[in-house]
Amino acid sequence: MTAPDTPAAGPAEPERFVLPLVARIERAEPPARTDALQTAARAVLTLLADPRTAEPAGEWHERVALWEELQIRKVVRRARGAEWRRAEELAGITVAGETAQVRVFPPVPLDGWPKELSRLQVSGTELADPRPPAAPAAGTPVLWLNPEVEMSAGKAMAQSGHGAQLAWWQLDAAERTAWQKDGFPLAVRPARDRAHWSELTGGGLPVVRDAGFTEIAPGSCTVVADHPALRTRG
After folding, report:
1. For the residues of 21-55, what is the DSSP string, one character each?
2. CA dist., res. 145 & res. 173, Å (int)
């Protein structure tokens, strides 16, 4: 009696990575929402420009490349007190805004977070602005948020990071260097209204379309990355 043929094994599923971002949210002095979003976006850019990522021999280069090949998923968690101090002991980069601190870490396997980070909460990042943010200064790169999509602060931080990364990918080496040299200035603001959002999404600028893992529907357009250098291109 002949045994049935065993189907040939297909290619192994590639390991999926996620980029952890940890926001410092102390109970007594939480950061302003807009500052937290901007600081998260700058943290992502800082990691991408860091020699440990950018140089082929850098210790983070391969992991970042594998993460970028599949999906630039980012997860924001919050920490305070001793939690924050433990997070700072792990390899990563802390970026400070006016009121916010965000630490970004090289990508980790989706199911392999360090225990110091896996214990941190994802929820609880509801932040507010004490006053309406001022209009961005002329020439400042702006990450425009969809005014019709509601997101928690943590979700909006991740989406702002996506927008900054899409802009980074489309800049040439000289434009990247100039942005980095200036300290990655940027602003995060909601689009003024539906007409403004429609103009932005139809203008050829990078648009973030969410994968739909949390909070919002798959394919939702959340952020348009409006960097001045990208507006000069035909």
Report:
1. EEEE--SSSPPPHHHHHHHHHHHHHHHHHSHHHHS
2. 26
Helix axes 173-181, 33-49, angle to 10 degrees: 130
pTM of the model: 0.92
Q: Residue 223 forms beta bridges with which residues?
A: 145, 208
pLDDT tens figures, 157-216: 999 999 999 999 999 999 999 999 999 999 999 999 999 999 999 999 999 998 877 788
DSSP state letter for 228 = H
- Residue carrying the six token digits 């973030």: 208
35-54 tens-digit pLDDT: 999 999 999 999 999 999 99
Residue 104 forms beta bridges with which residues?
Answer: 21, 93
| 171: DSSP letter | S
Question: Residue 232: which of 172, 164, 144 has the closest Cα?
Answer: 172
Burial track 132-153 (b if 16+ CB lie within 10 A, e otherwise): ebeebeeeebbbbbbeebebbb
